[in-house]
Amino acid sequence: MVGRFLALALLSILNVACADTVAPKSTYESTMISLTGVLIEGGVECQLFQANDGREYTLMGDLKGLKNGDKVQLSGEEAEVSFCMQGKTLSVKVISKVK
Amino acid sequence: MQTINKQSSGLNLLMRVVALAGLVFISAGAYATGSGPAFKINAAHVPGEVLVKFRSLPGQASDAAAAHAAIGGQTMDILPVINAHRIRGTRNQSAEALMQAYAKRAGVEYAEPNYIYTTQVVPNDPRFAEMWGLNNIGQTGGTADADVDGPEAWDKKTGSTAVTVAIIDTGVAYNHADLAANMWLNLGEIAGNGIDDDGNGYVDDVRGWDFANNDNNPVDDQGHGTHTAGTVGAVGNNATGVTGVAWQVKIMPLKFLTASGAGSSLGAARAILYASAMGAKISNNSWGGGAYSQTIENAIATANQRGMLFVVAAGNSNANNDTTSSYPCNSPQPNVLCVAATDHNDNKASFSSYGAKNVDLGAPGVSILSTVPTGTCGLCASSGYRFLNGTSMSTPHVAGAAALVLAQFPNFTPVDIKNRLMQTVDPVPSLTGRTVTGGRLNVNRALTIAATATPITVVARGTPVNGIYPIMVVRIDGNVVGTFNVNSSVFADYALSVNVAAATAHAIDIVFTNDGFAAPEDRNLIVQSLRVNATAFLPGTAGVTYDRGEGNAAFDGVDVLAGQEGMWWSGALRFTIPSNAF
Q: Which end of chain A has fewer CB atoms within 10 angstroms, the N or the C?
């Protein structure tokens, strides 16, 4: 019974997705990502972060008092819209200082 | 409140009152007989108008009549005692030309411009001196007057509680001492009764709505929204903290960004729809993301249909929005006004995004002092105030200016407000080629009616009775600007040129004054069309109403039929001419 319900639910979701005819202009997808890097200067309305792979993000949320120059490990979700308006923005869920 | 004078030191209140009456007489700048060739008046003055005093010549009457006939001028007023004439040309002459012409005549003692004097209104808010964006006197080491001319603007308008600005952001600290008196309340809702009294789909939404948490408490738990709200409309002249661009306004707090500052397209769209449905005519949107959202786009389009201006930040990436899309700044909707940031030297802020096609104008956005909550949150401060940078801060300067424009011109559409703000910027080199206007907001100029000589032509014919033709009077916004004897039984042009505010809607009345309304006094005035600049407007079409003169003075449209061109009784046609015709 539960299996049938889940199967129907899955079919329903797929059906909705297939029936969606809105032009796919929005590229936003909320995904949780984990990164290691350093907090850097240059953020205007939000703290700027540079990951070890060179990508930069502005950060939102509670940064636990960490400041520019601190090496950090963080997990967060890419924000759909925010007031940072400076590149991609991560809504930080977890952040900690690393050596 | 105190007043200071910037343009003319020593001008006292009495002089100001006299100036407002249109009759100011000072000797400086008068054009004496025998002055040199063509010149330009460098101070603000009434266009096409001069003040002239005629000498009393021995054994002769005043030279006024002869001078008027020779030059083409007419006396509009005479200041008693001094016996100075306020004169306008009958041939659309400039003030300079009139001054030169009258000054050459022996019977003229002096001729001078009718100068315009202004005062500046400075609020008593103790931290106003730190608000360089509103009044830059170099207090932060910047360039004096690299500001939006707040004090000059407040001499004309300080706001209106009839104008509501939605703050679509992290919420607003609605109990803040510098904001509380300007907060919007939903009078259609009864607080705490658990009922959607006004039927708008939201229960007990007395203060607005929190779309981030889906409740009726849009209080700010981050601080960003409160900062933007303060720039738009912190209570002015209340001896507390700071002042907004608009001293009096209604701030509608709509929260869709969470305490961490992020939000969704759906939440933004809901807030936009709520604001426009609940009477906000302006919204401040200090947020963005980059990705286009059809849902937000549809909400902005709906807001446009409902008459709401959407003021939005350009972004903080120092990017060219023409090549790197920034949304919703780049929305093509006509009610979208996108704002870059400038510093205290009128430089583009180093971080500010720009775009000659997509970013409309600049406004102060560096080291901006405004309100924040006093509790514990991301941008909270125990003082209730803090300085911030960003296009988030420049955007509410423009939203506040829009509120003042709407207070001054209540019939303006969103596009009218947008055009007015864009057409009255101060050009600054740092924004040339980087914004649509190439300029920075100037609120004072946005409130100032810039008179432009506008050709107006009535195409009409008359049928006489007892040899008497109809007399046609032309009024603009209630003021008589021309009187014609329509002495032709075939259609002819009756033309005049009038200085009227550009980019502003005006009502033009064509009034038939001498019909008599009794047989055999049954002469007719037939109006074929009215032309404003190059645009023709026809009786019997939309925007044209008729008062047949039955005494109620109402332009009620009685007796107007499609294609009707005549006025068979005494009465008037009113042409409501849209702003884009001027």
A: C
The CATH number assigned to the domain holding B241 equals: 3.40.50.200
Contacts of A59 in chain B (CB under 8 A): none
Cβ–Cβ under 8 Å, residues B385 and B379: no
Residue B164 domain-assigned (yes or no): yes
pLDDT of B367-422, one tens digit each? 999 999 999 999 999 999 999 999 999 999 999 999 999 999 888 899 999 999 99
Cα dihedral across residues B37, B40, B46, B47: positive or negative: positive
Partners of residue A41 in chain B, C-beta under 8 Å: none
pLDDT at residue B498, as a whole number: 83
CB atoms within 10 A of CB B180: 12
Residue B2 vs residue B271, higher pLDDT: B271
- pLDDT value of position B556: 55
* Interface membership of B315 toward A (CB under 8 Å): yes
B159-169 vs B120-122, strand pairing mode: unpaired
Q: Counting Cβ atoms within 10 Å, is residue B19 exposed (0-12), middle (13-18) or buried (19+)?
A: buried
Q: How confident is the model at residue B48 (pLDDT cuts 50, 70, 90)?
A: confident
Averaged pLDDT, B448-460: 84
Residue B150 lies in a domain: no
The burial of A28, by beta-carbon neighbours within 10 Å (0-12 exposed, 13-18 middle, 19 or more buried), is given as middle
Residue B261 token pair: 């500052």
Report B:13-72 residues touching A (Cβ under 8 A). Answer: none
Q: Considering only alpha carbons, which residue of chain B is nearest residue A61? A: B260
d(CA B261, CA B36): 65
Quickly name the fold that domain A32-97 has: OB fold (Dihydrolipoamide Acetyltransferase, E2P) (2.40.50)
> Best residue in B255, B257, B258, B316 to probe A by mutation, most A CBs within 10 Å?
B316
Total CB pairs under 8 A between chain A and B: 98
Chain-chain contact of A45 with B390 (C-beta, under 8 angstroms) = yes
Assess whether B461 and B421 both reside in one domain: no
Per-residue pLDDT tens for B117-176?
656 789 999 999 999 999 999 999 999 999 999 999 999 999 999 999 999 999 999 999
Q: Which domain holds residue B276?
A: 158-447
CATH number at residue B95: 3.30.70.80
pTM higher than 0.80, yes or no? Answer: no
What whole-number distance in Å separates Cα of residue B395 and Cα of residue B287? 10
Put simply, the answer to whether A86 touches B326 (Cβ < 8 Å) is no
Sign of the dihedral defined by the CA atoms of residues B545, B547, B552, B558, in that order: negative
B174 shares a domain with B256: yes
Do residues B189 and B206 make contact, with C-beta atoms less than 8 angstroms apart?
Answer: yes
**Other C-beta atoms within 10 Å of B574: how many?**
18
Domain check: are B68 and B165 in the same one? no
Asked if residue B315 and residue B353 are part of one domain, the reply reads yes
Give the residues across from A58 on adjacent strands. Answer: A48, A89
| B262 close contact with A: CB closer than 8 A | yes
Instruction: With beta carbons less than 8 A apart as the criterion, state whether B225 and B261 touch.
Output: no
| Averaged pLDDT of chain B | 86
Assign B517 a pLDDT band (cuts: 50, 70, 90).
low
User: Quick check: B389 and A83 CB within 8 A?
Assistant: no
With contacts defined as CB-CB under 8 Å, which chain B residues touch A81?
257, 262-265, 268, 287-289
A→B interface, C-beta within 8 Å? 22-23, 25-28, 44-46, 60-62, 77, 79-89, 91-92
Mutating which of A21, A31, A81 best tests the B interface, going by the most B Cβ atoms within 10 A? A81
Residue of A20, A25, A44, A86 best to disrupt the B interface, most CBs of B under 10 A: A44
